[in-house]
Structure prediction request, 820 residues.
Amino acid sequence: MTDKNHQSFNRQFDSLEEFVDAISERLQCPVTIEDSNHHLLAYSSHDDGTDAARISTIIGRRVPEKVINRFWKEGVIPTLNQSDEPLVIPQIHDIGLGNRVAVSIRKNNEVLGYIWVLEVGRTLTKEDLADLKLAASKAKNQLLQLNMQKKKKEKNHQELLWQMITGDARNHQVISEQLSKIGINPQKPLAVILFSFDVMSDELYKKLVYVAKTTQKINILIQTLDENQVVFLISSHIQNDFVKETKDFIETFKTQIRERFGISQIWSGCGYAYDNYEWIKRSYDEATKVISLKQSFDQELKSATFYHELGIFRYIDILQQAEQVEDITINPAIRKLETYDLEHRTNLLETLDVILNKDGNMNEAAKELHCHVNTLNYRLKRIQEIANIQLKDPVQKLGLYLDMKLFRGR
Amino acid sequence: MTDKNHQSFNRQFDSLEEFVDAISERLQCPVTIEDSNHHLLAYSSHDDGTDAARISTIIGRRVPEKVINRFWKEGVIPTLNQSDEPLVIPQIHDIGLGNRVAVSIRKNNEVLGYIWVLEVGRTLTKEDLADLKLAASKAKNQLLQLNMQKKKKEKNHQELLWQMITGDARNHQVISEQLSKIGINPQKPLAVILFSFDVMSDELYKKLVYVAKTTQKINILIQTLDENQVVFLISSHIQNDFVKETKDFIETFKTQIRERFGISQIWSGCGYAYDNYEWIKRSYDEATKVISLKQSFDQELKSATFYHELGIFRYIDILQQAEQVEDITINPAIRKLETYDLEHRTNLLETLDVILNKDGNMNEAAKELHCHVNTLNYRLKRIQEIANIQLKDPVQKLGLYLDMKLFRGR
DNA sequence: CCTCCTTTTGTGGATTTATACTAACGATAT
DNA sequence: ATATCGTTAGTATAAATCCACAAAAGGAGG
Prediction:
């Protein structure tokens, strides 16, 4: 490294832009600095050749999701996260990435961001790489400062989120103003998503937020941690797209958490998106209920993400409480089937349960029970005879369905 | 009338049997005496010729239901009830009735019973008829005495019934013993049937009990009146037959009340039949709930008679109460359809309701809505788009069904 | 052992249901 | 007026469901 360069990295920079230009000048290549979430912090201005990925990054002010994802799959980001050495990355043509070199900006073990150098026209020498490493260590101070501001801001955001979900902030107007004050002005319906984990740590939480924010499938306004639960406040565009996009997000999120960190036991739930911000608490409560009910009825609710998809199970706990108080007897039909099953070593009650779960679709039910459709039809006939019920009558059918669920809960 | 005869009717008779033999002797025909419910009280012993109906009556200790029914249809019994004149009834061959003469035994306007004279070998003269009328007036005293015993017995019965349905008598053993004490020893499951009327009077109550007892479709152990409601304690044979027979009884009962007294607004309900007599109160409560729910959901529950046939509606009121307390919002799907209906002058909400009531049977639903099946399919598709729901998912479908019912209750 | 009863599985044919495509109509906007 | 959209029906065809019947397997009890 030359003295000149050494000095140039040591001097005071007014801004990150000046700094990135200095690196670019030294290496004679386009340079980009990102934060730990791959959001663009600064990019060198005097760039002759730039690849598609860099253009997208600059335009979108963040690295495109598919690029991040690819870097994860290729092991690039994990490697960067684990060392402060520059990493040479060969070009990946199909997503428009030229040859580049990257290094993480870090304080001890915490990654604060990344410097990316695009190798345009030349290949970096060992000396260049050493200087790049030096530059990364110099960038640390700048990013630390930014990071502290960000953390402070986030604290404010989180406090507001807590006020909203605990019901402390009750007035739509007030909430809206406070959101504006901290730079969030959605003018859109807001909803709460929850993810619940078996274990939780500060480190894991950071990873989760990182993944959630980098999937870019959805607009996360505020996030926070509540014991083992991650709370996201999100904004929707149009109601219908919102549902689809959110489901997509949750799907991707879970997949990536599983692939990248090997965690597959994740419960998720999402409340309605409400225009009126008074109801964000309700959205949170709904998301909570989704999770707790999915934990109790994982089979029945495995395709449910939203509160409205809980269907009949929204009422289950109300009824269970009332049942206990009023001491209503178990439906005699169920009791009779139970007795019959015991006496004849049959499984009519389970059969009925499956039929009800499949809403009378005998083919599906037969598949699940590994028996012939006709067998199932025969059993159904017997069930109706024995239990003295009429499944053709929707009223009785629904009643039995509920009874079965309530019955199971004992 | 001869002095001899006159005297013979005036003398003291030790029993109704002696009395009926005296009439038979005088008229030279078989004679039968029934109480007001057509139960056999006495019959003449020295009978040469007897028709099928009389044999059945004597064997069964009461007049067969089809005979009673026929006499009502022919206007015989109404006529007898309205006058104290003997009535000559031509033979009705198809139910085995020969020629006969009947007269009501009455005290003022109250009918206490009937005397039947079978015209075997001879036809009664005017003089015979006058003597028969005299005999009827003499029988009054005997029947009045019987009637008073019966009423007293009934009072005891009713008191026990009240103890059971109010829960005063809690112990199975005790109830069973008390039933035995008053001559009822069913050793069978017992249930409560209720009939509720818009108006009620002592006279109507008597008529109702008369009809209920004479249909002979079911074994009524005790009956009583509770404001506008008639309460029957009934015993069952086998569970399955019980349901069928009871439904049959209720059907017949309502038909006859309508045909004979022109009353068609009748609510009915029946509780389970319980082995354990502690639960007779529960049977009563169930019957009460059947009636009140049928009054609220007459369309949905028009085929329901028994508590177990209430299906999902058993839970409706629990949920409605909880809804009020917790102030749960109306399902957004319903709200959206409502809005859409208003803006486009459509009936999607009603359409959904019918589809749900018909449990997804599009043909039936189309019939009810007077539209083409394809139209309905199209509407369903639109409904699912607009409301963002998925009726293929049974969980959502059931949830919506409940929401619609709860929603309607506002 | 056989017999009776329940249960399972299979077959064939009638009926119902699902789906795609099309014609037609009326309201609304251009 | 013309085009477009949402709506209603009709037809045709494939898919499924339903139903009656029969063969066969397994168990309980004599």
Summary: The first strand of chain B starts at residue 31 and ends at 35. Residues 84 and 104 of chain B are 6 Å apart (CA to CA). The longest helix of chain B spans residues 126-166.
